[in-house]
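Exercise (ungraded).
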Amino acid sequence: MTDIRAYEQAQEQEAGFGDYFALLKPRVMSLVVFTALVGLLVAPVGVHPVIAVASILFIAVGGGASGALNMWWDADIDRLMRRTQKRPIPTGKVTEGEAFAIGIALSVMAVVMLFLAAGAMAAGLLAFTIFFYVVIYTMWLKRLTPQNIVIGGAAGAFPPMIGWAVATGGISLESVLMFALTFAWTPPHFWSLALFVKNDYANAHVPMLTVTHGRDATRRQILAYTLALAVVSVALGLTSIGGPVYMAVTVVLNLLFIKGALGILRRSDADSEADSHLAERAFFKLSLAYLFLHYGALLVEATLKHWGLGGW
Amino acid sequence: MDTQIRAEHELHRRRLSRNVGLGLALLTFVVLVWGLTVAKVGGLDEARIKAGAAAEASQ
C-alpha cells in the first residue's frame, strides 16, 4: 500500500456530524422524547413552556448519552453482529475513546442542566436511568441473563416518570404505572421480533431467550408479559390521568394484544415458517401501535380536561 | 490511479458538517440557557409580586 492510499483510507474513515449523532441512538431517543413529553403534559401541574422544552431536550440528551456509553462498552460484540456492524465504532468512524468521552460529558451535562431547569427529583431519576442502562444493563446483566430484554426495558421505561417529575417534583402512582406500562410492554415487543428476525446474538455470546430457552418458552413468556401488561394498562386508566377515552383504547388494544399472544402461543416453528411468521410480524406491528396509542390516549385525556371534559 | 486533486474533497464536506453541527448544538445550548434564565427570573418576579400583594393586603 502506498502512503497516499493509506492517507486516503484514513480520510475516508473520518467521521461526519451524523456519525457522532448516530452514537446517541436517535430512534431510541424519539421514544424517550415522546414518553417523557406525555409524562410532563399529563401531570396536574403546569410547566413554563421554555422549562418544558429545555427539560425534554436534556432528558433526550441524557438518553442519547447512555446510548453512546452502551456503544462504547459493547463495541466488541457490535463488530460481530450484522445488525450493529454499521454503527460508528465498528465502521471505524468514531473511536471507542471518543464514544466514552461524549457519553460521559453529555451525561454529566444533561443531569446538571436538568437539575437547574427542573430540580433534584427529575435530575436524580435521569442520573439513575443512565446508571441503570449503562452499568446494570449493559455492563452487568446483558451478557449474563436471557431476561436482559426485561432489564433493558426498565431503563427505557423511566422517561415518563422523569417528565412527570419535571412538572410535579415528585413520584406518584400515576408515574409509577406509566413506568410499568413501558416496562411490561418491552418483552412482548422485542421477543416477538426475535421470533421472526434471524439474529446472531449467539455469535456474540449474548444470551437471548429464543436461544437459551427455546422458541416455545419465548412464546409462553410473551403471553405472560402480555397479561401483566393488560393489568398495568387498565390500572393506569383508573388513576387521575385516565378516563373513558383511555379506557376504551386500552380495552380494545389489550383484547387484540392478548388474542395475538394466544395465537403465537398456539403456533409451532413449522407453522411460523410456513407463512413467513405472519402472526409474529402482525403482533410486533400491533405492539408499536399499542404503546403509541396508549400514550396518545393519555394526551387526549389531558387535552380534554382543559375544556372541562375527560377524566373520571 | 484514481487520485485527483479536487478543490472540494468529500472530506471537506464531512468536516464542514461536523463544524456546522457542533456550532448549531452550541448555539442551541446558549439559547436554552438564556431562555431558562429568563423563565426562572420571570418566575421569581411573579413570586415577589404575589408576596408583595399578600403583604399589602395583610396590612
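Further reading is listed at the end of the chapter. For now, observe: The CA atoms of residues 5 and 11 of chain B lie 12 Å apart. Chain B has a mean pLDDT of 84.
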